[in-house]
Amino acid sequence: MQEVGEIIHLASSGRVIIRLSRQLDEGDYVCDESGRRIGKVTELIGPVSGPYASAISLTNNIKKYVGTTVYFLDEPAIRHDRTRRRRR
After folding, report:
1. SS3 12
2. Theoretical Cys-Cys bridge with 39: which of 18, 55, 86, 87, CB 3.0 to 4.6 Å?
3. Residue by residue, what is the 3-state secondary structure of 45-67?
4. Which residues face 72 on adjacent strands?
5. Number of C-alpha atoms within 13 angstroms, CB side, residue 49?
């Protein structure tokens, strides 16, 4: 898990603006410290020396993440077990 920046703003459109400390690509997911996906990068904006990212929120409570550090994972740490238990 690598730190990629900080969520600085929640736009009126519902997207979050992230100040980047590391380069991301469009379509990458950003996660919180527990590895939960909280946003998907849709657009890179700003100067090359100090880039920002616009991301679509993947959680209903994105306001609590404003001002927090976000991370990048190639593969999410939280996996859901999709197998079903059989009833006896």
Report:
1. coil
2. 55
3. ECCCCCCEEEEEECCCCHHHHCC
4. 2, 30
5. 0
Using a cut of 0.70, tell me whether the model's pTM lies above it.
yes
The residue assigned the tokens 């380069």 is 23
Q: Is the pLDDT of residue 2 over 70?
A: yes
The two three-digit tokens of residue 7, written as one number: 């969520």
Three-state SS at 24: coil
The answer to whether 1 touches 71, Cβ cutoff 8 Å, is yes
Model confidence over 14-70: pLDDT tens digits? 999 999 998 899 999 999 999 899 999 999 999 999 999 999 999 998 899 999 999
* Strand locations in 1-88 (E): 2-10, 16-20, 29-31, 37-45, 52-57, 69-72
